[in-house]
Amino acid sequence: MPLAEIKEYTELYKIGDRTLPQRKKLPARQKSKVEDQISLLLKTLEKLNYKLALIEMQENQFEKLP
């Protein structure tokens, strides 16, 4: 979470419980951002695993040559 949002959260916390809905939005937004990042990383990992599998298949073909 960016420092500005942490400060905002802290200020809202100091105001009291009436700011609960506003405070809830801040970590909810951060959660959404993290989920998006995880999704992107998983897609990237999938592509890397695919490329590695292709390379391993090619390596195995060369090892089997007479």
TrEMBL record:
Which InterPro entries does this UniProt record tie to the protein? Answer: DNA-bd_dom_put_sf (IPR009061)
> What is the name listed in the Swiss-Prot or TrEMBL entry for this protein?
Uncharacterized protein
Provide the organism lineage as a comma list.
Bacteria, Bacillati, Bacillota, Bacilli, Bacillales
Domain of life of the native organism: Bacteria
